[in-house]
Amino acid sequence: MIGDYPEISFRTRDAGGDVRNSPLEAREGAFRRARNITLLVHGFNTDITRAREAYAAMAKNLPAEERETIFHLFWPGDVTESRLTSGLRYAEVPNRARDCADMMAEFMMEEFEARADHDPSTTEVRIIAHSLGCRLTLELCQRLRFAGGYKVKEVVLMAAAVPRYMAANSGRFNLGKTGGKEGTLVLHSKKDKILFAFFKTGQRYESEYFEDIDNGRAALGRFGLQGLGIKKGSINEEKTEHDHGDYWTSPSVSQSITNQFKGPVRNEPRKVGKGRNVSNSHSVQGRMRPQGRRLG
Fold this sequence. Notes:
By secondary structure, this protein is α/β, with parallel strands linked by helices. About 35% of the residues lie in helices and about 20% in strands. Helix 5 (about 95-115) packs across helix 6.
């Protein structure tokens, strides 16, 4: 463990750098032994220091029993050490998110299989993700379903840098199938300046997935589920007044997450105050994760 929480890293460097060939588990075996896991996933253009700060800020606002289940996930969502030049290379990052999702799914299924009971259903995994980390998370959930039918118990998507058409029932991710029976919480804000300024432009570079000019360039993290034809069921959404970077530090967001994890499914959106279909080459079965966990 590095710091206060177990960590899983796909980074080769603390800032910038490439995707590791295999995940580095800072305390080997911690994931395998855990029966309740809350995985925190940062977003685009975030180095490891900023990610740790964000995770720590949220943990302070969560109940003790939830803090005890936290695992930190780090991935190279910052392409270079400079936040400015990294921001200009957005087009490279969705591919990184997919690669990390591939490896994380393999890692999780291997760790489940290594247990004495060989039963992934004995572990409850929840994921709290932000920005482009939501893309990584949805890719991961999809791969787990395809690999062995495993479903993450609950997913929280904050300021999701995910095209709305991908979230629709007919889209790549189909949010109705993302979480387990407890479901998914989408937190969004029309006051998100980052998504407003950069998301549509970034989508121009992801032409392989661009399907709908009107819906495709709109971020789930700004507009939520409205108009996508998604049955609420186990999918909840909350409209917030937050800017893009406010979610990790917001007590009201932490409270909403706590309510989601503990409370009954809510069918109507609430307002919260401020405070590629998988090809064989990208399926879990179609990739062999290199052995070993050395840095490099």
